[in-house]
Write a structure and sequence with these properties.
547 residues; alpha/beta; Rossmann fold; 2 domains; 21 helices; binds S-adenosylmethionine
């Protein structure tokens, strides 16, 4: 997999270098004979230290802006096609990054004092990861251009079906094959199944001697609620000793006037709200909005006094308060999301930030979490190119508050999206004064702001997150490449059909004829496509023990 990814990125670097030589011609400077480019070396250069002249990101990015789409299409070469075709067949691991805690003096000290270093500060630069983000732009722009060529706004259905692979395909397949499922599955259901299984999140600690067979789950930002159904079903199927399964859930309240006016109509698709009114928590103002501090305080109070029946004693902080094994929240699940086209960067980032603050406010000691987040750069919102320090710093909050943190992009998550999940295990607890600091940060948050100053983050941590962001970017690029390849196939096939009627002069002007390299019909014919997809789905079922 890494080989494939590298060569794709390498290809884009080649592309960038070639473009530089084109620009030189335009400005009529004497052109040097262009050297054959070496993709992997170029990639390395873009990641070199800040002092390297070759890797100045601003120049690099401004040059990228000048690349013409026509030119891009012409050099979108054979190598990319071959690598992309291989990815239709391979089932490599999805992205899993296990965050490691290092014991060197600097890392140890910074992690130990982590929370006390909390401070809302304006965005700062941590690395050249932005160069990699910009490469997603290129494949995205190609995608838009191909759609424009085809005179369509959305991908043709067959291209969508073939390229999105597990994203929606598997749930349709599972629905058709298994008749005993609790409901028609959504993508949220299969994603959560994959996560619960991969990280064994419902297994109780074997050392527990209290005969504890209860399991409590608090879902945030969860309507309409497929993940509620999934977690419960998973517990029944895989952990039958859990006899006392209990859940509560929150989301924007679809029946609240303010929510309806601000966010539009939300629906109670599975009647989970109507049928379980006492299990849904809408907070102090009945909106359910988790970005409001008064609501977070309300949830925390409800959990301690009503759900867990813990006596609130102001002298005892929540480090002790929540620590009874049979009387704790075992798992928090958050799936917060808002449309990027209709919401501001502020709202989107605040939702990410609010989810992590809700987790540290409401988790019990030893508890786990599964929370959806997005990588910081949003293609349609250019200012987010400066959001890396915001991103790294809110992941750092998980890192210092949980014994173990993993970043995971499931097979079943859309390959072209920045969506991924943070899986935390073993919540360490937080003091009330520290929580108050976080509430102040949430109330004063500004776009792209970071939660920790630069010198509060260990290099050992930053390096790990940079690597994760690179993996995610390559994965996104690969997702677009798959679609782009099939769009070209689709276009050529259409043209060929027409040209068989109107002689062959109608063919595409772009250099490589895709139908001469790959058998497009294999990927654009639904029946033939099943020969590729179904064995992959069966393998997913095996790996994730869905039977
Ligand atoms: C992707 S949907 C969740 C889908 C759900 N996991 C399922 O499988 O059915 C995202 C949810 O986040 C909720 N949400 C967005 N912003 C929120 C906020 N500020 N407070 C609470 N919920 C929020 C939306 O109302 C929506 O229900």
């Amino acid at each position: 997999m890494s080989k494939t990814k590298k060569s794709s990125i390498g290809n884009f670097n080649t592309l960038f270098n070639n473009n530089t030589s084109i620009k030189t011609k335009k400005t009529s400077k004497p052109s040097k004979p262009s050297k054959p480019s070496k993709p992997s070396k170029t990639l390395k250069t873009s990641k070199q230290s800040k002092s390297s002249k070759l890797s100045k990101p601003s120049k690099y990015i401004s040059k990228l802006k000048n690349i013409s789409i026509d030119y891009l299409q012409k050099i979108y070469n054979l190598d990319v096609y071959k690598n992309t075709i291989a990815s239709f067949y391979t089932l490599n691991n999805p992205i899993i990054t296990y965050l490691v805690s290092y014991n060197d003096k600097e890392s140890k000290n910074l992690i130990k004092n982590g929370i006390s270093n909390l401070k809302l500060v304006s965005a700062y630069k941590l690395s050249n990861i932005e160069d990699t983000f910009k490469m997603i732009d290129i494949s995205y722009k190609l995608n838009k251009n191909l759609l424009k060529d085809l005179k369509v706004k959305k991908c043709p259905q067959i291209v969508q079906y073939a390229s999105e692979d597990f994203t929606r395909g598997i749930r349709v397949f599972l629905d058709a094959r298994y008749k005993h499922l609790p409901i028609n599955l959504s993508n949220g259901f299969v994603k959560l199944w994959e996560i619960l299984h991969t990280f064994n999140l419902l297994a109780k600690n074997n050392t527990n001697t209290n005969n504890n067979n209860s399991f409590k789950v608090f879902h945030i930002a969860e309507a309409p609620g497929q993940m509620i159904l999934c977690a419960k079903y998973y517990a029944e199927k895989k952990h039958p000793y859990i006899t006392d399964y209990d859940w509560r859930a929150n989301s924007l309240n679809p029946f609240n006037y303010e929510v309806k006016t601000k966010f539009g109509a939300l629906r109670d698709d599975y009647k989970l709200i109507r049928n379980n009114p006492h299990k849904w928590l809408w907070g102090a103002d009945n909106t359910g909005d988790i970005t409001r501090v008064k609501n977070i305080k309300w949830f925390k109070n409800y959990i301690n006094t009503k759900w867990l029946n813990n006596k609130i004693d102001n002298k005892i902080d929540n480090k002790i308060d929540n620590n009874l094994d049979n009387n704790k929240i075992d798992l928090m699940i958050g799936d917060g999301g808002l449309g990027t086209d209709t919401n501001s960067i502020y709202n989107l980032q605040k939702l990410d930030l609010a989810q992590v603050i809700n987790v540290v406010a409401c988790s019990s000691i030893g508890g786990a979490c599964v929370i959806k987040h997005f990588t910081s750069y949003m293609i349609d919102k250019p200012e987010t190119i400066e959001a890396t320090s915001f991103f790294i710093s809110f992941i750092y909050l998980y890192y210092i508050c949980f014994e173990e943190v993993n970043l995971f992009k499931p097979y079943t998550s859309d390959a072209t999206s920045g969506e991924f999940y943070v899986i935390g295990k073993g919540f360490k607890g937080i003091e009330n004064n520290e929580l108050e600091k976080l509430y102040t940060i949430l109330n004063n948050f500004k776009v792209n702001y970071a939660l920790f100053p630069k010198n509060a983050l260990p290099d050992t941590f930053i390096n790990q997150i940079n690597n994760f962001l690179e993996l995610m970017s390559s994965y996104n690029i690969k997702g677009y490449e798959k679609q782009n390849l099939l769009l070209k196939c689709y276009k050529e096939t259409k043209e060929m059909k027409n040209s068989s009627k109107n002689s062959s002069k109608n063919s595409s002007k772009n250099s490589v004829k895709i139908n001469t390299i790959i058998d497009c019909d294999k990927y654009l014919n639904e029946d033939k496509l099943k020969d590729i997809l179904i064995p992959r789905y069966n393998q997913w079922i095996k790996i994730n023990e869905f039977e």
